[in-house]
Amino acid sequence: QINFTLEVYGRSMDTLLLILCACLIMTMQAGFALLEVGSVKVANTYAILLNNVLDVCVGTLGYFLFGYAVSYGPTTSGFMGTDYWALRHLPNDDALTWVFFQYSFAATATAIVSGAMVGRTSYHAYMIYSFIITGFVYPTVVHWIWSGNGWLNSDLYGLAFQDFGGSGVVHTTGGTAALMGALVLGRRKLTKEVAEHAVPESSPALVTLGFFILMVGFFAFNGSSEAHISRPGDPEAVARAVINTALACASGGVATLLFERVVHKKINDFYVLCIVANGCLAGTVSICAAVNVATTYSTLFIGSSGAIIHCLWSISLHKFTPIEDPVDATAVHLAPGIWGVLLCPFVDKNKGIFYCGYAGQSAAWRQLGVHVGGLVCIIGYTAVTTFTIFTIFDKLKLLRSHQEKFEHAEALRIHEEELAKQSHHGFFHDVFHH
Amino acid sequence: QINFTLEVYGRSMDTLLLILCACLIMTMQAGFALLEVGSVKVANTYAILLNNVLDVCVGTLGYFLFGYAVSYGPTTSGFMGTDYWALRHLPNDDALTWVFFQYSFAATATAIVSGAMVGRTSYHAYMIYSFIITGFVYPTVVHWIWSGNGWLNSDLYGLAFQDFGGSGVVHTTGGTAALMGALVLGRRKLTKEVAEHAVPESSPALVTLGFFILMVGFFAFNGSSEAHISRPGDPEAVARAVINTALACASGGVATLLFERVVHKKINDFYVLCIVANGCLAGTVSICAAVNVATTYSTLFIGSSGAIIHCLWSISLHKFTPIEDPVDATAVHLAPGIWGVLLCPFVDKNKGIFYCGYAGQSAAWRQLGVHVGGLVCIIGYTAVTTFTIFTIFDKLKLLRSHQEKFEHAEALRIHEEELAKQSHHGFFHDVFHH
Amino acid sequence: QINFTLEVYGRSMDTLLLILCACLIMTMQAGFALLEVGSVKVANTYAILLNNVLDVCVGTLGYFLFGYAVSYGPTTSGFMGTDYWALRHLPNDDALTWVFFQYSFAATATAIVSGAMVGRTSYHAYMIYSFIITGFVYPTVVHWIWSGNGWLNSDLYGLAFQDFGGSGVVHTTGGTAALMGALVLGRRKLTKEVAEHAVPESSPALVTLGFFILMVGFFAFNGSSEAHISRPGDPEAVARAVINTALACASGGVATLLFERVVHKKINDFYVLCIVANGCLAGTVSICAAVNVATTYSTLFIGSSGAIIHCLWSISLHKFTPIEDPVDATAVHLAPGIWGVLLCPFVDKNKGIFYCGYAGQSAAWRQLGVHVGGLVCIIGYTAVTTFTIFTIFDKLKLLRSHQEKFEHAEALRIHEEELAKQSHHGFFHDVFHH
Fold first, then answer.
1. Which residue of C12, C45, C208 to mutate against B (max B Cβ within 10 Å)?
2. B47 contact residues in C (CB cutoff 8 A)
3. What is the band of C210 on the pLDDT scale with cuts at 50, 70, 90?
4. Subunits with 3+ C-beta pairs closer than 8 A to C
């Protein structure tokens, strides 16, 4: 009798943790939406926000109909799940807690993608790719690493890719898909009326509100990644996860400010507000993988270095490539996500390269190998699938919104003129100087 | 000793669920306020928001002084409670958890009313009717159905009105009161400066933020309707409730979009954003009653049909009646609320008409009868009491705000001119063609 | 075995309470930021919001590196802690839950200060004083009263300063620091372009949203002040705390409205919205100290009287002093905070002056003496340290932002002219009338 009660209580507590944290994680949808409309010059705020709402709707359907089955269904050689379609055949209703919790993670991963393509896609394309990413692409990666039966983290092949809070699973996957989207969309030249459209008064407040919502959401995200709180060691693990999240967030923000002041020397106030907020988030993203095993000092290092990498990525993407990433979705999620996965085998306070002593070095370096290999697979798989989807949409003329079609054509025309002018100069240069 | 500890732990867990969910439910006040100011053209945003703040203040006092006593006090023949005024005579402080939790529900029901009358009522009227609805009208319905001793759901008369999350208790009651308010206020003709007052830049962001806050609030709302989490079966029930909430919300949004695109063919972006967000909420409202017993497929059906009913109601109200409901409060809460209560006896996966087999049909149809009868009583009681209150206020010239008095008089004048013109045309028509 | 499981479960539940409430408390950062930008006329919203973000970053580092050690480290004669610097030497990871929870309180206390100096300080000054207040000033007061070993509340000197939710520890400390900041900054004359800068459209919505976030944050704040929920009596204490918070908030709002309508007769809608929201918060602040021991009626009295004191303070500060407090940070936190600490020994339903009967009077009045003495120490200590810091910064020309330097100089010039004119008038007055 007592043992039965204890068993029920254990499940009750785990359910409390997972459901309440999932609620807080779902508020991150509002955070992403606010960051997007608050920090981007756009012609049509309505369309962007409608996309955010539809994103959740379609993503929910995608996850419940297919996504959960792909990620947590009985495995086929560790590659993807094959049952529980439309939540059927679940062993019991208790599994629904896990479904809801994982659903909040999937929604977050998909929301990352929307940032990089904000205001440029058509409704139809947006809804279809939301459905595919939430229903297939992201869940596959989850199955590999978090299902307990995936090829990257199970006894199946003896591999143990370590990613507590999702630097790899959530942020690298979402960030890669975002990069592919931005890549396929390519150059853009804002039409005159959009370019002159002043940043609205309320924007900075929305950005800040969005940031704070995401910050709190990340506490819930990383804290609940322990997945249960009723077993010995759980409360401690949850506590360390939230503390490290706060530290990484803080050190990311301070590092970004110092970088901007000392190295980059940008003085536009709005730019600094946005990049510091993004720096905080980048710090948080980079600690996700090791958030349960990093010491305080490691966390400060990972958070601040992740934020600096975010700054460098953001500046480089803008300067050296034709890729437009208006809300720095790839800078915040992809680059620090990769960084976090790579550092994890070094800073693990139990068996990391810096801590394990001489005896553990071989295992620790092997772990690093698994992480590098895993990253290549995650990025490769996500890049190929999403690039294919976006390209097909683009060829079918479904991808771009009406407005975007003009802006993209205009940008291509200007780019060709510039190329032509350069070769012209080149011609005279050749004639007169050689 | 161990049993004592277990008993304390059980109460601790229930308290955690109820208090934390009540906190999330209270954030819905912000969601309602944002939806209102974000989606309505108004002369005075300040007044609307002040009303929202006062709503909470006065509603709190109303609920704690009278409301809790009316809903959960010792019953008088199942009609209303008669003790615990001002929270006195409560058996112990543990009951306060339940008070706080129920208070968050009452605040939600009252907030629904404010939407339909947004920007048109005076302070004084607003505060008094908030007090009465939170203190008497809504608690009476709660007593009938949720107190355990009410005439509609207890052994008293052998009836068992089934309403897990409040499609009937919260949304039909709130929606009916809202409809009565809008009915008494009647026609409106915005004065020129208000009509020309552009929708502010930030509105769509506020609407979207409000929507996401309400969505998360509904997870907490329906999840915590189980009322405890420490008993066997609780974690599963909570999990099913939140999953079904997410599915109903998503299917509602998608159904609304399809309806708008295929049938209604509205193209105004702001309109589509607002109605899709409202469609999501309508889907959620219609699942409330059966949220713990509906299967995945039933939920998708209830959510999408509830959302379509919301669309039809919204369009009909606007086209065929002189009732103004600027934020579609009745379309979102009343119509889908009724729909949810009616469908519940069909979709209950344990004993519903579609699932119970031949043997259970008689009981299931009887259940439907109880639901129809219960709805008539809820709507009748709420309509009579609130209509009376609003009419008395209107006769005493207390109901309308200063600005509203002009707009209403102007609308009546125009309406009478039109009637006169029609009869004039009718006159010539008669003379020359017959 | 069973006892071990029970012990783990107890910690699990406490962790759930503390971590989830800390998350809700951290959302208060967004609430403070929105109240600030929503209710202040400023030249540079970006700078204010960036300060709010940096506040959290620097405050986090300050608290984790020094603050926790100062507040909860092994004591030196009850004055301050001396170990756990940078969270080292903590007995176990379970302590991290407490660290995170206390960190959310420290962040709140520091955010209070920012309100009084909003838009007037330089980045560098802001970051340094955030660090010092979160790292040293506030934690010292916490050590005195909440550490269990402090001189004001332990067996050390037999004193027991009673402050459940922080009227004294959080709000009086934060409010005093805010007052010192405003005092050192002194007069301000907005430059013409700032003064004419219209209140943005979205402001009232942001203020209201900020208010609701803070309201819900306070539920979590006071509810979780019990610090655990797994022991007998905990659930009841948490429930009473949140109920009393709601009642104090509501009565504060209603009292403020009545005061404004009947006594002050201000009619500006925006002003009324802001002061009613602030009145609600003031009511909540004044109940904090006694929130677990006050009866329903006491709470209504404390909440409403605290709100009226807030109104009087706000009006007096504006009328009779040159101190600028644009968001009424001192009126909301300092005055009601002091009021709450002073009333606590009267209204304690177990041993307060009004309840303890003849036998307990001597102990109850002694308790009042401790509260008065404690307040003097808190205010004195905070005032001296923060005044010193701000004055040093000001002398080093580090305190004020670029814009502020002009505005302050202009205000001083005008003030001196007025003084000169007065003495001039005084001269003629003297000559011709005496």
1. C208
2. 269
3. very high
4. A, B
Q: At B372, which CATH number?
A: 1.10.3430.10
Q: Which residue has the tokens 């709005």?
A: A270
- Which of A8, A201, A226, A300 should be substituted to probe chain C, the one whose Cβ sees the most C Cβ atoms within 10 Å? A201
A33 with B216: Cβ contact below 8 A = no
- Token look-up 């003709």 returns B189
In a domain, A431, yes or no: no
Residues of chain B with Cβ-Cβ distance to C270 below 8 Å are 46
pLDDT tens per residue across span B336-391: 999 999 999 999 999 899 998 888 899 999 999 999 999 999 999 999 999 999 99
- Looking at the DSSP assignment, which residues form a beta bridge with residue C80? C76
Q: Is residue B276 located within the same domain as residue B422?
A: no
Question: Looking at chain C, how many residues does it have?
Answer: 434
Coil vs helix vs strand at B350: coil
Provide CB contacts within 8 A for A420, sequence distance 6+.
none
- Strands (DSSP E) along C141-261, which ranges? 153-154, 159-160
Residue B426 shares a structural domain with residue B358 = no
B326 with B383, same domain: the answer is yes
Of B204, B239, B297, the CB nearest to A93: B239
- Do B393 and B413 share a structural domain? no
Find the closest chain A residue to C14 by CA distance: A235
Tell me C410's DSSP state.
H
Q: How many domains does chain C have?
A: 1
Contacts with C34 from chain A: Cβ below 8 Å: 205, 209
User: Tokens 């405890």 label which residue?
Assistant: B228
Residue A192's pLDDT band, with cuts at 50, 70 and 90, is: low
| Mutation target vs B (from A23, A104, A197; most B CBs, 10 A cutoff) | A23
CA distance B392 to B408: 17
Say whether both B61 and B125 belong to one domain: yes
Among C206, C272, C280, smallest CA distance to C246 is for: C280
Residue C16 has pLDDT above 90, yes or no: yes
Report the C-alpha gap between B393 and C342 in whole angstroms: 43
Residue C36 is encoded by which pair of tokens? 């600030």
Q: Which residues of chain C lie closer than 8 angstroms to A229, CB-CB?
A: 12, 15-16
Chain B residue numbers with beta carbons less than 8 Å from the beta carbon of A9 are 6, 9-10, 13, 230
Asked whether the predicted pLDDT for residue A3 surpasses 60, the reply is yes
Task: Please name the amino acid found at residue B154.
Answer: S
Q: Which domain holds residue B97?
A: 2-400
Of A16, A219, A239, the CB nearest to C96: A239
Whether pLDDT at C434 is above 50: no
C-alpha separations of C191 from A281, C43, C403, C411 in Å: 36, 9, 9, 10
C433 domain residue, yes or no: no
Interchain pair B27, C231: CB under 8 A: no
B334 plus B416 within the same structural domain: no
Q: Is the pLDDT of residue C201 over 50?
A: no
| Position C188, amino acid | R
Q: Closest Cα of chain C to B309: distance in Å? A: 30
| Same domain as B391, residue B420 | no
Please report whether residue C56 resides in a domain: yes
Give the mean pLDDT of chain A: 89
Return the closest-CA partner of residue C81 out of C159, C162, C145, C131.
C145
Q: A172 and A248 in contact (C-beta within 8 Å)?
A: no
- Judge whether A367 lies within some domain: yes
Residues B389 and B421 in one domain: no
CB atoms within 10 A of CB C396: 9
Q: Which residues of C touch B201 (CB under 8 A)?
A: 201-202
User: What dihedral do alpha carbons A47, A50, A52, A56 form, nearest 10°?
Assistant: -150
Check CB contact under 8 Å for C269 and B44.
Answer: yes
